[in-house]
Design goal:
The complex is a heterotrimer of chains A (322), B (842) and C (302).
Chain A (H helix, E strand, L loop, with lengths): L1 E5 L13 H7 L7 E4 L7 H10 L3 E3 L13 E6 L2 E6 L10 H11 L3 E3 L7 E5 L2 E5 L14 H24 L4 H33 L3 H6 L1 H8 L18 H14 L7 H6 L14 E8 L2 E10 L2 E10 L5
Chain B lengths: L8 H27 L4 H13 L8 H25 L2 H10 L6 H17 L5 H11 L6 H15 L15 H7 L2 H22 L8 H23 L6 H19 L2 H14 L2 H6 L1 H8 L8 H18 L1 H9 L5 H15 L5 H18 L4 H19 L4 H17 L11 H9 L2 H18 L6 H15 L5 H8 L25 H14 L7 H15 L6 H21 L6 H22 L5 H17 L3 H18 L3 H16 L2 H6 L1 H16 L4 H11 L4 E5 L11 H6 L1 E6 L1 H16 L4 H20 L7 H18 L5 H20 L11
Antiparallel strand pairs in B: 1-2
Chain C lengths: L5 E7 L7 E5 L5 E8 L4 E9 L5 E3 L1 E13 L3 E14 L2 E3 L3 E7 L9 E2 L3 E12 L5 E10 L4 H8 L10 E7 L3 E7 L3 E3 L3 E11 L3 E14 L6 E14 L7 E7 L9 E4 L3 E13 L4 E11 L3
Parallel strand pairs in C: 3-12, 15-22
Antiparallel strand pairs in C: 1-4, 2-3, 4-9, 5-8, 6-7, 6-11, 10-11, 11-12, 13-14, 14-16, 16-19, 17-18, 17-21, 20-21, 21-22
The chains are: A alpha/beta (322), B mainly alpha (842), C mainly beta (302).
Chain lengths: 322, 842, 302
């Protein structure tokens, strides 16, 4: 049984459309038996129509921005030995909190809980249950604070820029000390960044070959390729990294302290160019396909990164309770 | 020879059969004679006999063609035999001999057969023979027989005509006079063309006028015979474009103009366009257009121009380099010629239909864009014409005309490789656009928007934005239900701008828009997202301008303002990330962004049905403001959402959902907690109060226990610590406690317990108890000491007792019991990883 | 009928190699007749053989060369315009086959041979063996051509007001119906010539189906008032198929050499004339014929 989990479109308030590459992948061809939508789509009739075209069995819960009050807040489906719950997630407090979600799953008596609202694609097991957030299909802007990973990247880009700017400003001999400090900082950041990239590469290695076409063609191929994965490795690799706490707080403090006089004029404002950080501001567009067989759920996470569709595979197997 | 009009199709079939039999027999006899010595004269007699069948008057052109094919094959034997067996000098005599044939049709076929063999021998007086055959063919004036005879002439001479120009310096004059060169061939073909065309045209006027349509059909069947001459011409490699312009085209065009026949003119001009090379056309536009202006009034100048233009556009694709050269050469002003033609056209053909005219303008604008993509003035002048035309007679209500204006307007949109080019178009485009009916403008606007979206082009300057909004204006100001009213009143005047404004007393039901309008507004909102500038301040200015343009949409801003809000918030985030919200000046500057947002929400808020949106937008803004450490601004927006909640949220369900959103947003307002906890406390107190005031007890209970989270806030600095295989204890360590009012948490839990307990339905209370137990576990795990083991045990005990009181677990209780069971199981499992759970009685 | 006791053979010198003219006899058979020119000597032998070897008595043998015009104008009349005779033998007895050479030197043959409908002009040799009883006669026809060059034509035709040798141009029509102009390259043609011309249509309201060119020979004999004329279409030649429109020009080309034409003669020996007319015939859809005739002068060219 192939089930599409998708949601958080926010068309047209925050996004123009589902990325064309996704649309191409999702073209109605009768393979998807059910569409589960985690909400936030109703202000766009065309998007709703598109979703409904994908499968005659279209199910949707109400998102916080959906105005249709007749929509249910939660739905439960049973597929063979698996029970799957569907919620938007705005009613889980704190939002996307694992313990909150766990309680929600317990309450709904489901093995798999699909939720949305954060626009961050993720999937993990906790306490024997499988939690899936298909993310935002459109990569819609989200007012929730950015993930650490994105913040780090933005930070490092800005650092590089500063260095370049500072090179110019050094001629005028201004505030060398601050610059030095930042340079060191950014050096470290860059190293970290590199390490992270490498880690990511390792993790992605197996999947990276899975281009768009293969994913489109047949999900089973993906499975064969990635079968080497330990089946208990249900960690999604589309997840932020650890240990970034200190750096953020540091930078926050430092910037609070120093730079006032440096850039305080309208001219500087006019020259401002934020295009470099642009790509890291919006969530990565994503959706999920669930292949449900017996007590096993094979999950395919589709993400659009730098214009390319990536497919990651995770497998969840329900523990047979004694 | 009887008049074929009096003949039935059955009789015709008989005649055809007879003729076929005769031809077959005579061809066979002729071949026999050819194979026998000294029977050549007999062979000629047989040939003459079967040729007599071509004298028939009883057949349709198609049937005649059948005979022609047979005769052609028969004569091919004769021709071959002549080639093989007859000495050169004999052919001249033979050429004379066959002219004794008493009937002209057989005589000329034989003459051509012998003559063309003669042409093929060495040193033959080719030119003389050509001229003679051509001249003698005049004797056949019957359209069908003449056409086929001349087609025979054309086919037979095909590979025999001189193909090279003579070199006057080397060739002798008299020899040239005898043999001719390619110019004679051209003359020959053109003459044949002219004569055939005359015959073809004449066919139209044969017979009874009631058979007009039949004639037309037959002529279409015959047209290829005439056109083949032009094909022949086009195959002469010696002809270059200058020669064509000087010596060929004028003659052809003269005939086409002179024949004054609709079918011929349309067909032949089309053939010219199709068979001659494009580079010829490029230098003969003047001639071509001049001819076009002198045609039968019913000729579709439109289709001719369209065909030509299509060819030229295709040429650019096939030979981009050549065209580029031509275009670069200012002396060949293709567009100038075309527009000159349009000018003359409008003078000379004032009766031309608006649809034709606009189709021509459309195709010409496509051509201009293909050839001169940068010359926006061209397009402008096309639309100047269009405007004039429209003012003249454009308001024709017919649908066809409407569609044509539309395609004309869309031509630049579909042709420019970059849709932004349409923003370069000058006033005449807009003037013309604005002359159109609302419906039309709207659909053109939609197409423009779609194109922008498709190409994902960014709108980055004020100028661009102004232009874009001018062309999408119809999407903004929507006349009230124009379709309905137009239908009811049939008054096109209603298509103009609506006069009266919408009454303020509307309900949501009143303002329900049709799907069409919703889709149109959706596109508009999407379009807004193309507004971009790498500089967030400039970007913001553009958004302000957009707001000004959108304002007249009145209540329909509800579709577009949320987009502006989201875009502005994104700018705020950007500025924050690049540390541009730090100094006082910067903060003042950013305040304008929030004022802008506030203004947008306020406008939307004038309509009650936007309450949910406004509530959400305020929350979103509050969240971003907090993220940007603008905690006071954040507070204001939170307050705004509370105000909306109080004023407009009336039903329990939306109240509950709003509170969940509110609670979550408050929890994430981390900077406010740190920087202005008084404000924060005011907000959460209010929120908790709202929770306890919900109407339905289940909602009330849940909202209250959810509110407990407001008093116990940990920053989840490790986004996925929970998914880690590490100990929960460690996970806890990575949480930064922002608020830890354990007492208030407990109060909330207790209050929700009381509410649950007061519910009469046991099962519902039980379910809520279990939910509260789960909630309590959360705080227990997070180290809220007020939620102790004792407290948990008490809760568990309470639930157990209640179940006992229920007695047998059945019906709805079963599910509740299972929930309880799952919760206990969870507790038991926690014991293995968290020793604090040891004492919990699960 | 008595059986002739004599066999007369008339042989011309070089008869086997002499050019002949093929002429259709009245019975439709073709016969080949030796050809002579004006002024040419007619020479040959006459051989007379007896049948059954019987002696034959005669009162003289002569040979004549006669030129005569026959007309079946109420019974055949004939009129010799040439009459030459040679005595071959004086009266006597023929015991053996005997051959007599003869020669008419430089015979003047003023007219051309002609076989028409009512008139026949012929030259012939006549051998007569005169006897007391019935004469034995043997005849042999000679064909005579009169060759002329352009200059001579006028004289022979005896035209008093001769047409100049020039282009023939005519403008004819039916009011409000048809108006054509036609022209022939000239008005006199040698018999091997070709008629070239064109027809220009100025007005066509007739539904013309086709157009022919005919050559008509008119033979006139006798003298007024008992003059008799008869016409004969020698050639019929389609020159146009279908109906032209105004402004159309149709070419005419007719090779004459292949037809049995007679040069134009006027008042041959005051007895007869042969003239040839060129007739342009238009046939309309209702099979009505419209024609215009004009005379052309034909002559025999060497």
């Amino acid at each position: 049984m192939l089930v599409l989990a998708i949601g958080d479109f926010h068309i047209p308030e925050r996004a123009v459309d589902i990325p064309p590459k996704f649309k191409k992948l999702l073209q109605p061809r009768g393979k998807i038996q059910q569409v589960l939508c985690v909400g936030n789509v109703t202000s766009s009739p065309s998007s709703l129509q598109f979703l409904k075209s994908l499968s005659p069995d279209f199910q949707m819960v109400k998102g916080d921005h959906d105005k249709d009050l007749s929509l249910p807040l939660s739905l439960v489906f049973t597929y063979d030995k698996l029970k799957v719950g569907l919620i938007d997630g705005f009613e889980v407090v704190p939002k996307s909190d694992p313990l909150g979600l766990l309680a929600q799953a317990r309450m709904m008596d489901v093995d798999i809980l699909i939720y949305g609202s954060t626009h961050k694609v993720e999937a993990y097991t906790l306490d024997g249950k499988f939690f899936i957030n298909p993310g935002s299909a459109t990569g819609a802007f989200n007012a929730d604070s950015l993930g650490k990973e994105d913040l780090d990247i933005i930070e490092s880009i800005l650092k590089e820029d500063d260095e370049a700017d500072d090179d110019q400003e050094e001629i005028e001999g201004k505030s060398e000390e601050v610059d030095k400090g930042e340079k060191e900082e950014s050096g470290k950041e860059k190293e970290k960044e590199k390490e992270k990239e490498e880690e990511k590469d390792k993790e992605n290695g197996k999947e990276s070959e899975n281009g768009e076409k293969k994913g489109e063609k047949d999900v089973e191929k993906v499975e064969q390729k990635t079968d080497n994965d330990k089946s208990d490795n249900t960690e999604s690799n589309v997840q932020p990294d650890t240990d970034a706490k200190e750096t953020t707080t540091n930078t926050v403090e430092k910037t609070d302290g120093g730079k006032d006089e440096l850039v305080d004029d309208d001219d500087e404002d006019d020259k401002l160019d934020t295009s470099e950080i642009e790509p890291y501001l919006d969530p990565i567009p994503s959706f999920c396909l669930l292949d449900l067989q017996g007590s096993t759920c094979t999950l395919y996470l589709y993400t659009l990164i730098d214009g390319e569709v990536k497919v990651d595979k995770l497998t969840y197997r329900k523990e047979e309770s004694a | 020879m009887s008049n074929r009009n009096n003949i039935t199709p059955g009789e015709q079939a008989k005649v055809l059969d007879n003729s076929i039999t005769v031809i077959r027999q005579q061809v066979a006899l002729m071949r026999k004679c050819l194979e026998t010595k000294n029977h050549f004269m007999d062979a000629l007699k047989h040939a003459s006999t079967f040729l007599n069948e071509l004298r028939t008057n009883s057949l349709t052109p198609k049937q005649y063609y059948e005979l022609y094919i047979m005769v052609y094959e028969g004569l091919e034997y004769l021709s071959q035999d002549l080639k093989d067996t007859h000495p050169n000098n004999h052919l001249a005599d033979l050429y004379e001999l066959v002219q004794y044939a008493g009937n002209i049709v057989p005589r000329l076929y034989l003459m051509i057969t012998v003559g063309t063999v003669y042409m093929g021998v060495k040193d033959a007086p080719v030119k003389e023979i050509m001229t003679d055959m051509m001249e003698m063919c005049r004797g056949v004036q019957h359209p069908i027989r003449g056409l086929f005879l001349r087609y025979y002439l054309s086919q037979r001479t095909k590979d025999l005509l001189p193909t090279e120009f003579s070199d006057p310096s080397t060739e002798k004059k008299d020899e040239l006079a005898l043999k001719g060169d390619v110019s004679d061939s051209i003359q020959f073909i053109i003459t044949n063309f002219i004569e055939m065309n005359k015959l073809w045209v004449r066919w139209q006027h044969q017979g009874h006028s009631s058979e007009h349509r039949k004639r037309v059909e037959e002529r279409k069947e015959l047209q290829i015979l005439v056109g083949s001459n032009l094909v022949r011409l086009s195959q002469l490699d010696a002809i270059d474009r200058v020669y064509y312009k000087k010596h060929i085209l004028p003659l052809i065009l003269e005939q086409i103009v002179k024949c004054r026949d609709l079918i011929a003119q349309e067909y032949l001009l089309d053939v010219i366009i199709q068979v001659f090379p494009d580079e010829f056309h490029l230098i003969t536009l003047d001639e071509f257009f001049d001819a076009t202006l002198n045609l039968d009034p019913h000729v579709s100048i439109k289709s001719i121009v369209l065909t030509l233009v299509d060819r030229l556009i295709g040429f650019k694709k096939r030979e981009p380099d050549y065209v580029a050269k031509v275009v670069a050469d200012d002396s060949v002003d293709i567009f100038g010629k075309i527009i000159g033609f349009i000018d003359k056209l409008s003078q000379l053909k004032p009766d031309m239909s608006a649809t034709d005219y606009s189709s021509i303008l459309e195709s010409i604008s496509k051509l201009s864009i293909t050839y001169y993509p940068d010359r926006y003035a061209n397009i402008d002048s096309i639309f100047a014409h269009a405007t004039e035309l429209f003012k003249d007679k454009g308001s024709s209500p017919e649908l066809q005309a409407q569609n044509n204006w539309k395609t004309l307007l869309l031509a630049p949109i579909s042709m420019y490789s970059d849709v932004r080019s349409i923003l370069q178009l000058d006033n005449h485009y807009l003037e013309f656009f604005n002359l159109q009916s609302y419906q039309l403008r709207r659909s053109v606007s939609m197409e423009i928007v779609e194109k922008f979206l498709e190409e994902e082009v960014k709108i980055t300057t004020k100028e661009e934005l102004d232009k874009v909004f001018t062309v999408v204006q119809p999407l903004i100001v929507v006349p009230e239900d124009p379709t309905v009213k137009a239908l009811k009143l049939g008054d096109p005047a209603l298509n103009s701008l609506p006069g009266a404004s919408v009454a303020d007393t509307e309900t949501e039901e009143d303002s329900k828009d049709s799907l069409d309008i919703i889709l149109q507004q959706e596109s508009l909102a999407k379009l807004l997202q193309l507004i971009y500038n790498k500089n967030p301040y400039k970007h913001f200015e553009l958004l302000e301008i957009a707001r000004d343009y959108l304002q007249p949409a009145k209540q329909r801003v509800k579709y577009t303002y949320p987009t502006l809000v989201a875009m502005t918030l994104k700018l705020v985030r950007k500025l924050y990330l690049v540390k541009h919200i730090e100094t006082k000046r910067q903060k003042n500057k950013i305040a304008k962004f929030f004022t802008f947002i506030s203004g947008l929400i306020t406008v939307m808020g004038q309509h009650t049905y936007n309450a949910v949106d406004c509530f959400n937008l305020n929350l979103m803004t509050a969240e971003i403001a907090d993220e940007s450490k603008l905690v006071d601004i954040s507070y204001d927006f939170f307050i705004e959402s509370l105000v909306i909640y109080e004023q407009f949220f009336v039903d329990s369900r939306s109240q509950y959902q709003a509170l969940m959103s509110l609670i979550n947003k408050l929890i994430s307002a981390k900077n406010m907690i740190q920087q202005n906890v008084e404000n924060f406390d005011r907000l959460i107190t209010k929120t908790t109060l709202y929770s306890s005031k919900l109407l339905r007890k289940t909602d009330q209970c849940r909202a209250v226990y959810m509110s407990s989270h407001l008093w116990w806030i940990v920053e989840d600095v490790d986004d996925y610590g929970d998914a880690d295989e590490s100990e929960p204890i460690n996970a806890m360590m990575s949480h930064l406690s922002l608020k830890d009012d354990g007492k208030r948490v407990l109060e909330c839990l207790q209050k929700s317990l009381r509410i649950a307990d007061s519910i009469l339905d046991n099962n519902v209370s039980l379910e809520l108890f279990i939910e509260i137990l789960n909630q309590s576990l959360y705080f227990f795990i997070h180290g809220n000491e007020m939620v102790s083991v004792r407290y948990l045990n008490g809760l568990i005990e309470l639930i157990r007792n209640n179940f006992k009181a229920v007695g047998k677990i059945e019906g709805p209780f079963e599910a509740t019991w299972k929930h309880f069971d799952r919760t206990l199981k969870y507790i038991r499992e926690q014991k293995s990883i968290d020793p604090r759970f040891d004492e919990v009685n699960a | 009928m008595f059986k002739s006791p004599l066999d007369i053979e008339l042989r011309l010198d070089g008869e086997d190699t002499r050019e002949t003219v093929e002429v259709k006899s009245t019975k439709g058979r073709k016969e080949k007749i030796p050809l002579y020119k004006d002024g040419e000597t007619v020479k040959g032998q006459v051989t007379i053989r007896m049948r059954d070897n019987k002696r034959v008595e005669h009162t003289g043998i002569k040979i004549q060369l006669l030129g005569t015009i026959e007309m079946n104008n109420d019974g055949v009349q004939s009129d010799d315009f040439v009459s030459l005779a040679h005595e071959l033998a004086s009266p006597g007895e023929l015991r053996h086959p005997e051959t007599f050479p003869f020669e008419f030197r430089n015979v003047e043959k003023p007219y051309e041979s002609y076989r028409g409908l009512n008139v026949r002009l012929k030259y012939y040799l006549k051998v007569t063996v005169s006897r007391k009883s019935a004469d034995v006669i043997r005849e042999k026809e000679l064909w005579v051509y009169q060759y002329q060059n352009q200059a001579q034509v006028e004289e022979t035709t005896g035209d008093k007001k001769p047409m100049p040798t020039s282009m023939v141009k005519m403008d004819v029509g039916i009011e409000n119906c048809l108006h054509i102009e036609f022209e022939y390259s000239k008005n006199r043609y040698s018999l091997k010539d070709v008629i070239v011309g064109r027809i220009y249509f100025l007005l066509v309201r007739l539904k013309i189906k086709h157009m022919e060119l005919s050559l008509i020979r008119r033979e006139t004999c006798g003298a007024p008032p008992s003059q008799k004329s008869e016409s004969q279409t020698i050639v019929r030649f389609e020159i146009m198929d279908g109906a032209p429109v105004r402004g159309e020009t149709i070419p005419i080309r007719l090779f004459l050499g292949g037809f049995d034409l007679t040069p134009t003669y006027k008042d041959v020996n005051k007895k007869f004339s042969t003239r040839t007319f060129l007739s342009l015939v238009l046939i309309d859809e209702d099979a009505r014929r419209y024609f215009k005739q004009s005379e052309i002068i034909l002559y025999r060219d060497e």
